[in-house]
Amino acid sequence: MQLPGTSGTPSAATHRPFGSTEGVPRRVVLLGSTGSIGTQAIDVADAAPDRFTIVALAAGGSNLELLAQQAVHTRAAAVGCALADKDTLHKAVQDAARDAGVSDYDPELFTGPSAATAIAAWPEAEVVLNGITGSIGLEPTLAALAAGHLLALANKESLIVGGELVKKAAAPGQLVPVDSEHSALAQALRSGTPEEVDRLVVTASGGPFRGMKRAELQNVTPGQALAHPTWKMGRMVTTNSASMVNKALEVIEAHLLFDIPLERIDVVVHPQSVVHSMVQFVDGSTIAQASPPDMRLPIALGMGWPHRVPGAAKPCDWTRAAEWTFEPLDEEAFPAVALAKRTAAAGGTGMAVYNAANEEAVDAFHDGLIGFTDIVDTIAAVLAEHTDTAPLTLESVLAAEKWARTAARKRCGR
């Protein structure tokens, strides 16, 4: 899949090339605006008003007060909320406007389950940053692509469960990764041609349980799973990082984004989280992207691709001594990556089942119904029961997810 700034011409359906002229602020839509990615994206836009302007935003609604404050702060023309009705959202926005001393702000409002999808297709947008967590981001992803917007994708699940469905919907140059690992790969891949790429190396911090054996993981607690040593993320992503499910999903995402076979994508544990991923070329050269762990850099690059945003994040301080270490992944203790590779290789709706079963198992773990190692065991068990061979469509993906959630809940004792 080609990225903006590489060779190739976008589909005529988009009516314009991706990557607007430098110096003209890009009109950005934020999906999942109250989450970790969304809040940092607003920081990026605030710091670079000559590069970005927020024209619309949407969130689930678990933090309605923050959503309303963001709307007033950015003066977004459209605001979406999945959980609130229009009267509730309108009141929240007007209350936030009053508290900020703003009297002339009245955005268009979208509410209900389809709010993010409607916002993703906002006609005034140039870039849609999808920072929603989970496979509920699939329909907004497809809507943004159909509208012809550049899609800065932090919602890896929509690509993973949608697979070829998403790839076929994306014109060349329309899809840009925001995950730090895939942003690193996209940058490193600019060092050579596709034919010169030998393999991709995706780095993992190792999470809070790095070095532990499977037997030691059986009794770890939710609190321990959420104590990530490097990144501050939401409950689902942080738990996925601890189980290596997040890294498994990232491997599949890399496979889909860059058209590299699964057997040529490796995972290496790098606890310092400074080298975000690497590309090994056929001549033996390896190009690594390094920067201190700060998501504002890949967010800024995703929204501004292929242009870099000066001062987006602090660089490494090369005047100070530092040590970087790399370790192989213990696949016996952390089998999630190998399981995902087998599932993706089988094709169909398997990765939709993988992701849905994981989300249910993570919730069950935090509710005290299952142990930590039971998370990946549940995914494997549900996949073993999965026999659907339907062609990959939006309907088949949603049906597979529904079935997998039911199966996982039953197995977890719900």
TrEMBL record:
<feature type="binding site">
    <location>
        <position position="35"/>
    </location>
    <ligand>
        <name>NADPH</name>
    </ligand>
</feature>
<feature type="binding site">
    <location>
        <position position="250"/>
    </location>
    <ligand>
        <name>1-deoxy-D-xylulose 5-phosphate</name>
    </ligand>
</feature>
<dbReference type="InterPro" id="IPR003821">
    <property type="entry name" value="DXP_reductoisomerase"/>
</dbReference>
<feature type="binding site">
    <location>
        <position position="34"/>
    </location>
    <ligand>
        <name>NADPH</name>
    </ligand>
</feature>
<comment type="similarity">
    <text>Belongs to the DXR family.</text>
</comment>
<dbReference type="InterPro" id="IPR036169">
    <property type="entry name" value="DXPR_C_sf"/>
</dbReference>
<comment type="pathway">
    <text>Isoprenoid biosynthesis; isopentenyl diphosphate biosynthesis via DXP pathway; isopentenyl diphosphate from 1-deoxy-D-xylulose 5-phosphate: step 1/6.</text>
</comment>
<feature type="binding site">
    <location>
        <position position="181"/>
    </location>
    <ligand>
        <name>Mn(2+)</name>
    </ligand>
</feature>
<keyword id="KW-0560">Oxidoreductase</keyword>
<feature type="binding site">
    <location>
        <position position="228"/>
    </location>
    <ligand>
        <name>1-deoxy-D-xylulose 5-phosphate</name>
    </ligand>
</feature>
<dbReference type="Pfam" id="PF08436">
    <property type="entry name" value="DXP_redisom_C"/>
</dbReference>
<dbReference type="GO" id="GO:0030145">
    <property type="term" value="F:manganese ion binding"/>
</dbReference>
<comment type="function">
    <text>Catalyzes the NADPH-dependent rearrangement and reduction of 1-deoxy-D-xylulose-5-phosphate (DXP) to 2-C-methyl-D-erythritol 4-phosphate (MEP).</text>
</comment>
<feature type="binding site">
    <location>
        <position position="246"/>
    </location>
    <ligand>
        <name>1-deoxy-D-xylulose 5-phosphate</name>
    </ligand>
</feature>
<dbReference type="InterPro" id="IPR026877">
    <property type="entry name" value="DXPR_C"/>
</dbReference>
<feature type="binding site">
    <location>
        <position position="250"/>
    </location>
    <ligand>
        <name>Mn(2+)</name>
    </ligand>
</feature>
<feature type="binding site">
    <location>
        <position position="63"/>
    </location>
    <ligand>
        <name>NADPH</name>
    </ligand>
</feature>
<feature type="binding site">
    <location>
        <position position="60"/>
    </location>
    <ligand>
        <name>NADPH</name>
    </ligand>
</feature>
<dbReference type="Pfam" id="PF13288">
    <property type="entry name" value="DXPR_C"/>
</dbReference>
<feature type="binding site">
    <location>
        <position position="241"/>
    </location>
    <ligand>
        <name>1-deoxy-D-xylulose 5-phosphate</name>
    </ligand>
</feature>
<feature type="domain" description="1-deoxy-D-xylulose 5-phosphate reductoisomerase C-terminal">
    <location>
        <begin position="175"/>
        <end position="258"/>
    </location>
</feature>
<feature type="binding site">
    <location>
        <position position="36"/>
    </location>
    <ligand>
        <name>NADPH</name>
    </ligand>
</feature>
<dbReference type="GO" id="GO:0051484">
    <property type="term" value="P:isopentenyl diphosphate biosynthetic process, methylerythritol 4-phosphate pathway involved in terpenoid biosynthetic process"/>
</dbReference>
<feature type="binding site">
    <location>
        <position position="179"/>
    </location>
    <ligand>
        <name>Mn(2+)</name>
    </ligand>
</feature>
<feature type="domain" description="1-deoxy-D-xylulose 5-phosphate reductoisomerase N-terminal">
    <location>
        <begin position="28"/>
        <end position="163"/>
    </location>
</feature>
<feature type="domain" description="DXP reductoisomerase C-terminal">
    <location>
        <begin position="291"/>
        <end position="406"/>
    </location>
</feature>
<feature type="region of interest" description="Disordered">
    <location>
        <begin position="1"/>
        <end position="21"/>
    </location>
</feature>
<feature type="binding site">
    <location>
        <position position="157"/>
    </location>
    <ligand>
        <name>NADPH</name>
    </ligand>
</feature>
<dbReference type="InterPro" id="IPR036291">
    <property type="entry name" value="NAD(P)-bd_dom_sf"/>
</dbReference>
<feature type="binding site">
    <location>
        <position position="247"/>
    </location>
    <ligand>
        <name>1-deoxy-D-xylulose 5-phosphate</name>
    </ligand>
</feature>
<dbReference type="GO" id="GO:0070402">
    <property type="term" value="F:NADPH binding"/>
</dbReference>
<dbReference type="Pfam" id="PF02670">
    <property type="entry name" value="DXP_reductoisom"/>
</dbReference>
<keyword id="KW-0464">Manganese</keyword>
<protein>
    <recommendedName>
        <fullName>1-deoxy-D-xylulose 5-phosphate reductoisomerase</fullName>
        <ecNumber>1.1.1.267</ecNumber>
    </recommendedName>
</protein>
<keyword id="KW-0521">NADP</keyword>
<keyword id="KW-0479">Metal-binding</keyword>
<feature type="binding site">
    <location>
        <position position="181"/>
    </location>
    <ligand>
        <name>1-deoxy-D-xylulose 5-phosphate</name>
    </ligand>
</feature>
<keyword id="KW-0460">Magnesium</keyword>
<keyword id="KW-0414">Isoprene biosynthesis</keyword>
<dbReference type="GO" id="GO:0030604">
    <property type="term" value="F:1-deoxy-D-xylulose-5-phosphate reductoisomerase activity"/>
</dbReference>
<feature type="compositionally biased region" description="Polar residues">
    <location>
        <begin position="1"/>
        <end position="12"/>
    </location>
</feature>
<dbReference type="InterPro" id="IPR013644">
    <property type="entry name" value="DXP_reductoisomerase_C"/>
</dbReference>
